[in-house]
Amino acid sequence: MIVRRAAAVLAAITVIGGATAPAALAAGPSPSSSPALPSGLYGTGDPTYDGVWRQSLAFLAQHAVGVKPAAKAVDWLTRQQCADGAFAPYRANPAAACDAKTPVDTNGTAAAVQALAALGGQDAATAKAVTWLKSVQNADGGWGYTAGGASDANSTSVAVGALAAVGEKPAEVRSEDGHSPYDALLKLSVPCDRDGGGAFAYQPDKKGALAANADATAAAVVGALGQGLAGSASKQAGAAGCKTADSPERAAQNGAAYLIESLAKDHHLTSALPGADPQPDYGNTADAVVALATAGRGDKAADAMGWLKDHSARWAEQSGPAAYAQLILAATATQADPRDFGGQDLVAKLSATGPEPASGKAAASSSPAASEQKEKSDGGVFGVWWFVAVCLVAGIGMGFLLSGRARKQQ
Question: Where are the beta strands (DSSP E) in 45-95?
Answer without folding.
Answer: none
